Amino acid sequence: MASMELTSTNFETTISEPGTVLVDFWAAWCGPCRNFAPVFEAASEKYPDITFGKIDTEAEQQLAAAANITSIPTLMAFRDGILVFSQPGALPAEALEDLIGQIQGLDMDAIKKDIAADTTA
Fold it and tell me: For the site Contributes to redox potential value, which positions are given (predicted)?
């Protein structure tokens, strides 16, 4: 599955869905963003069970501001609606592969339990 364009209209519903969602914040004028784009697209083809979304920070400035994006590219990962990773900078293919493996290996029940404990404390 190729990556999809995320906007303020579909961002919340997309990241809230069960499963893994990777989000690439980018801009056309950004050299590192252009270098990362083929790596992100290749991963989207390799992992059809993961949703890959791209947010053009120029077109979606309010969304980028709400996500506290201060540097691009920035990659965010959500799993079952929970932000589990956020980091600026372009990743090489091997690092993206490793990250995907780590995200898929997360114990979400434990994470949800920790979040619940934090909100009741």
Answer: 31-32
Query: How far from 65 is each of 40, 75, 101, 113, CA to CA, in Å?
Result: 22, 14, 29, 29
Please write the tens of the pLDDT for every residue from 52-97: 999 999 999 999 999 999 999 999 999 999 999 999 999 999 999 9
Q: What is the set of active-site residues?
A: 30, 33
* Percentage above 90 pLDDT, the chain: 90
Which contiguous run of DSSP H or E holds residue 81? Answer: none
Q: Domain boundaries in the chain? A: 4-120
Q: Classify domain 4-120 at the CATH superfamily level.
A: Glutaredoxin (3.40.30.10)
- Tell me how far apart the alpha carbons of residues 50 and 46 are, in angstroms, rounded to a whole number: 9
Q: b/e map of 102-117 (b: 16 or more CB within 10 Å)?
A: ebeebeeeeeeeeeee
Rounded CA-CA distance 36/22 in Å is: 13
Q: Which amino acid is at 117?
A: A
In this prediction, residue 121 has a pLDDT band, given cuts at 50, 70 and 90, of low
